[in-house]
Structure formats: structure tokens, C-alpha cells
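W.,

You were right to be curious about this one. When I first looked at the sequence I had no strong expectations either way, so I just let the prediction run and decided to look at it fresh. Below is the sequence, 444 residues in total, followed by the output.
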Amino acid sequence: MAPIPQTATVFAYQVGFGDCFLLRFDYSDGSRRHILIDFGTTGMPKDDATITMKRVARDIAERCGGALDIVVATHRHADHISGFETKADKTGSGDIIAGLKPRRVIQPWTEAPDAPEDWTGPEGTDPATAFAARVQSLDGMHAVARAVVERLDREGFDSHWPLAPRLRFIGEDNIKNLSAVKNLKSMAGEEPEDKANYLYVFHGCNLDLSAILPGVKVHVLGPPTLGQTQTIKKQASKSADEFWLRAPAMLALDADAGVASARRSMLFPNLEREDMFRRSKMPAAMRWAAERIDTAEAEQLLGIVTKLDKAMNNTSLILLFEAGSKKLLFPGDAQLENWTYALQSEMADLLDDVDLYKVGHHGSLNATPKSMWDRFSKRGAAGKAGRLTSVMSTMEGKHGGKHGSPTEVPRRPLVEELKANSNLVNTQDLAKGELFHEVIVDLR
């Protein structure tokens, strides 16, 4: 007789601005199964030097007894996969995780080295050609992100552009972490027979993990494939059109090398920037115009990388774990375009009685659609029996606009709603030195 899952425990780790969750299922026979869902950061808490990704990795290794069952990387943003980075001397946090030899690695279909067997492109499109175009598009996104960061580094714009911090964050989050990407494609074995250990999934696919997780169903609500919906393709296509039309004025792409380099695009190219902003002898009206033209350029760059960022978020996995009488929802950074398909699909009813919700995209503006939130029947005021639990990994001041703006992360009205109508567990509330929140869900 197969063992029955009794409890699910979520360890929500302190990784600053990032996601790292260890999901443990305890079984009736005393056995346990462990799933690592994301492992990344773009900024640890500045006031606590004791928290490092290596410390988190070592704790994960200890809690899972030296062996992981499953690793999930919801999408390739740095704040979700940077911890998987390896080092030449094998001492990286990613080396520790790889040493746990997970039996399966699960990623969205957009990460597959080849199109999944049952994936089909849009009608009339050759799947191989469409998939190659997808890979090229991802590489182009990374090239532009790197170009933006290199420009900020080289020209010292951070102190002059008010938008520079946001540009830097989004740019750095979208730069391809090659060693982490490679690690995710090798940690479950590198022999030909190990190919089946790497699963690239999409909305509605049959993700049968019963051999590893008896008594647990894993539903894949997102992302949809291009064959299922044009939603993501249209959004990405629109971004690409604007991005490539605007890019030549600011970015020079080296097609042969596949990398991007930045070049100056100033109104007054022969004038040192320090002079322009600090000691310029130009008439006041000219200084005023020059500064505003450069600000417009910064806003244009921000528009490009923001759309790039949204496109990547919309490749995020949306996984719902169903065990016993409970449901646990982990949507990564899925945003509106990704959610739209799931909420209109036959699988939408699965959301009605969710018990634990991992808050999408660190509490951002459009990662918790109201139409999805309204479906949660277990949300409600304090004291409600079986009240919804929300778990959020975030850090204020790292991403989005200033506090109180419509784009700050976490979004204040959302946080207030989560506190009012769910039991909110927030990594920001961890005391100095605390490594994780532990949330236990009784599955019986």
C-alpha cells in the first residue's frame, strides 16, 4: 500500500529580494519527500551579513537529508535561479544543490533544449522553426539587458539618472546566468538515459510525479504554449517591435558575437557628462533641455527593459499541488498575460479552494489578479475556519517605484488585502539572523 501524505511543510527562506521555498511532504510511513522551488536573489538584506545563499543551500541539504527529490525553476530571472550558480572550484551554492542529486528538474517549456514532443506551434507554423525563434528571442533579451547594465557601469549614469536604480535592477535580473542555466540542465544526471529526468511543462500537460510523490497531484496551470494561446506571443511580439525599433538609437548589437554593447547617445556628445550636470557653462535654457532629453532617453530604455522583464515573467510556471484535502499554489512570477489563459480555462475551478498561496512576483501590481484572488473561497477575516494562508518572499525598496507609487514592490494595497483576508507569512518579518519561516499544512 502506497504511503499517504499527512502534512506539507513550506520553508520560506530569507533571500532578500528573491524566491526560495523548500516544500516537504511527510508520509504515513515516516518517509519524506522534498521539493525545492526556486533558489535565487538579486539582493540579500543589507543589515544581516549572516544570511548568504551558501548558508541557505547548506540548510536545505541538512533538511532534506542530503538528497532532493525535485527541483523546480519557475523561470530564468536571476531572483529565481541565481543561487544555482556554480563555481570552478565546486564551492558555489549551486554546487551544493547539485550535490543533492535531484531525481527530477522541472522548468517551463520555454527552457526546453528542444520542443516538447506534444508541443505544437501556432497553426501553420513549423514547431522547430518557431522554437528556434523563441531561443533567439530569449538570447536577444539577455543581450539588451547586459548592454543596459554595461552602459550604467561604464558611463556612471547612476548618480545622474533618477531612473537608474530601476534600470539597473531590471537589467541585472534579466542577464543570463549561464552557469545556473547549465546546472539546471545537468544536476539530475548527464547520461543519455537521464534525459527523462528533465521535464519542461506547460498549461494542462500531464505531469505525473506519483512515483516520487505518491498521493500528490501536480497541476500545471501555466505557462500556456504558443499553440494554446496567442496571449504571450502578442505581448512579446509587441515588446519586440518596440524594442528593436528603438534600440538602434541607443544600442549597437554585434550580430556575430551575439552580444550587445552600448554607445553614447547624448545631445552634446563632446561635452563631458560631469560638466553637463555640474559645471556646464551653457546657458540655463540649454542645460534644462539637455537634462530633459537625457531623462527621456532613460525613460525609453526603462520602457524597453520593463517589457522584456514582463515577457520573461510570463514564461513562469504556475504549479498547484493537491494532496489529501488541501491545495498549495506556487505561481512564480506569473503576470496577467500568463494568468489570463489559466483563468479562462477548464482548470480555473482548481483555484476555488486553494489553502496556501505563494504570493506572485514578490507582491507586485499585476501578479495577483483580482479575478484570481476573488476565486479563493477560503480568504476571509481573522478567525475564519480553514482561512487561506499566503506566503510572500519580498524586500521593500528593491524594485518598482517609490513607496506609495502604483509600481512599488510589494504593492501596499495588496499587502493590506493579504493581511486582512489571509494569514500572511512574509519574509520581511523575519528577525535578524532568522533563516526561514516554517508553515505547516495538515493534509488530513
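Here's what jumped out at me. The radius of gyration is 23 Å. And, maybe more interesting for your project: The CA atoms of residues 75 and 316 lie 5 Å apart.

Coffee later to discuss?

I.
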